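Teaching note: in complex prediction, the entire set of molecules is handled at once rather than each chain in isolation. The prompt given to students was simply: 'Predict the structure of this complex.' The entities are:
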Amino acid sequence: MSTSRPGRPRRVERRRPGDTPEEEILDAAAELFITRGFAGTSTRLIATAVGIQQSTIYHYFSTKEEILDNLLTRTVVAPARLAESLMRDPERAAVRLYAMVWFDCRQLLAAQWNLGALFNLPESTRTKFPRFDERREYLRDCYRALSLATRSESSTSDSAQWSATEVDIAAALPFHFVEAAIQIRSDSPGRVERIGADDLATGIADAALRALGHSGDLTPVRKAARQVIRQIED
Amino acid sequence: MSTSRPGRPRRVERRRPGDTPEEEILDAAAELFITRGFAGTSTRLIATAVGIQQSTIYHYFSTKEEILDNLLTRTVVAPARLAESLMRDPERAAVRLYAMVWFDCRQLLAAQWNLGALFNLPESTRTKFPRFDERREYLRDCYRALSLATRSESSTSDSAQWSATEVDIAAALPFHFVEAAIQIRSDSPGRVERIGADDLATGIADAALRALGHSGDLTPVRKAARQVIRQIED
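The expected output is the structure of the full assembly:
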């Protein structure tokens, strides 16, 4: 049985999830890049996995790098959009940072492929990916701003005095703690399934706040953060 | 000028740091794997970078995978050795976990190449590396045990009640927070140089303890942790 549509002949039936050939190509490329690496994946291999001609890929993407840029960008688009709203939100910083970390972890854990692992491909750090790099940098700046503001809030009740260097380093960490979600998912996929993306995201968001000196019960912050996300998503 | 020694002819002068050809091969391979990926690096390329014949590599390593196993193993040998001593140490858990995180971050930040980034090569998660996998798993178990014990200690002064799931997730995080050191180093090498490996390691160790509900001044823990490391190293 063929699922090909008129005007776009396919060699074989549809093999990958996705409503368009572009989506199918991205899905196949994600799996192959994650399991075989970027250098180890040819466009011919991607085409075979989709069940299309190699030349069809170049109809949608001019290079293999563009496919990776596209996939990387997908991991930051939704969090960057949320961050933009959060930067203007009147809620206190701890709630906004919590919402940011929770949402970001959740989307990384819930995506079809562990796309976050593509950050770590040698090619991702070596090559410039204009769309991805710009959004990731923006996201990192938002994390930093919200982390600094959160620290500033918690410093009023924290008995410890932090030096400027301590604050500087602590403000850089929540952005990277989110990447623990990627690492746990690639290390122990069974663990993520057992715990669930929601609870794991909660654990990482809790840790981000505590690392900035926010102590005590986090229940009110958790509730307020979910509320903020719901309002922004509506 | 040739630096070759009698009995081991070299095509060109010594190009890489290392006292033995084995060390030079590992140094060149580390750089190439990190910058070009594993699939993108041939043993011929490694040989060229060292200035030796390709066949010489097979005198020391039977496969390219064995070279990567060797490099990966180097990132966990010293921390695993420290962990073994710490598991038997009578100090309280917070100090031992702190020592563990601090020491591990420091060695990852101070190594010639950002070898930790090799964890994240697709090949590292796909392939079995017997030596590395065994030590890393041991290290992860030690992190977990020390994290659980640290949480247990801090729960006596923490006003918040943690559920079993919260404790379970929090205990998994310090092991992954250490990987933030790798990420920061590959994202912003200049930042690591400016802050210094010691202070960055301190910031991450602070965060690991706070994430487990340890609040207040960490100065005594920091001092005790350095003392423990010094005693073990002596």
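Point out the following to students. Confidence is low (pLDDT under 50) at residues 1-6 of chain A. Chain A has two domains: 1-62, 73-233.
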